[in-house]
Amino acid sequence: MSDAQRTAAEPSDRETATHRGDKLELRLWLRLLTCSSLIEREIRNALRQNFDTTLPRFDLLAQLDRAPDGLTMGELSGRMMVSAGNITGLTDRLVEEGLVKRTPSEHDRRSSRVRLTPEGKRAFDAITPIHEHWLESMMGDLSREEMRALMTLLAKLKNSARSHAPDNNPGENE
Question: What pLDDT is attached to residue 6?
């Protein structure tokens, strides 16, 4: 078998590597992961090609856009689900570019609040409608009703995953 034939015969994602006999839970998990990965990859590529920016930068600006009073580094870290170290480096670069500013917290001098600058707000606002269009396009085969139903089911899955996570069941893995 040639390299090209071998590559064509290999699964293109985690989900396609499963078999009908595999547990439904595994197949569902891999389908969710595949969908998330596909969308994220396309958004990352489009942001890089069209705006010379990265998804983490866009995500940080989006979090600050939703918080006009700013956020602490810990709040940003929690909302973006990344380490404080990652947020610090990213914020430092955005401060240097004039897109965000840090101000000392009024309540805790060891902490600071990060806010969008007017330039950061303009940059974010320029990307937002195009980002929304990309998402609408990728989800274009779903009706509004299907999207609402999927949101409901995913909320139920999210709650189930949280309540049954191994960390929530001490002693189970001992």
Answer: 39
